[in-house]
Amino acid sequence: MHSPAISSPNPSLTGVVFDKKSYKNGFFSGRFETPISSPMDSKPSASTHRRNRIYVRNSVNQETEAQISQENEEIGNGGGSPPTSLLSFLCPLLKVFSGGDPSAERNYLLEDATSSLSTLARLPWGSRSLYDGLNKQQKSDPLLPLQLYEFEACPFCRRVREAITELDLSVEIFPCPKGSVRHRAVVRELGGREQFPFLVDSNTGTSMYESSDIVKYLFQQYGGKSSPSFGILESTLLTGWVPTILRAGRGMTLWENSTKEPPPCKLELFSYENNPYARIVREVLCELELPYILQSVGQGSTREELLYEISGSKEVPYLVDHNTGRGIGDYKKIVSYLCEMYISKSTPGYLQQ
User: Fold this and answer.
1) Distance between alpha carbon 134 and the CA centroid of its chain, in Å?
2) pTM for the whole thing?
3) Confidence (pLDDT) at 225
């Protein structure tokens, strides 16, 4: 592919300059710039602390969500209270069928079926970009990267990721699975408690819990002051649990063999929330607690052309690993690659490249 080098949509996120010609055979040989800092590297200034706003609402709806979110968190965190809810019972049960080791041989027929059913349950949210329909007041990514702390199996985190797809945003994702060795501690330090999702927006000095508040904030701030898509908030309590139940054993718990130290540069995933194959990749990224840059590429996204120029296709998922210069488009190959490169051993695979 003979075309000039281009930058990623937000070079500050990736730390890499893309060279489309270098993607032959799935390998990347672009030039590396400053490695991406970890979330603990940049402490908010005193002025930022004064501007920070932790949104904690006490309305009936917010209390309901907080209680359910906390219950879901206890499931993901191995809470000590006896499991009493249906979900508490189903999660360990379904985990037996879906398996806990992401590197183990998979029944992809079953994987594809359960993920596709999960996609059907959440139609029409999280599949397309609303870019063309948004107020012209906001048509680009925020200047500084948004940071989202979440875990894949959480239905309220899913609600936020659906909004991110619809707003065509690029966001830094910090997975927080059960047994997290890094990111949950950051959430406790920044917000005071382990509750997910948790959003940090350095552009406005805003930090917030509560998925419904986060969705409304994102649409107001980066959707031209528009309202959230019809049904995206209300539907979560009805169908948001379906992917959690169908895929309960995935995207919830840290894999014990995952590498203990994060790679120097974040991985980059071109994806959209309701894609069944991208879901499987995100689950593995969560179980390995690998921070990554989520490049939303829903139907009608402004990044579709960039994805095509880089990969030769508009299909997702597409993973770029800036630590090894590798680009991979097949979700099965991505899963195998991640489990090979980012397991705990004397010399991690990504350092052997």
Assistant:
1) 23
2) 0.78
3) 79
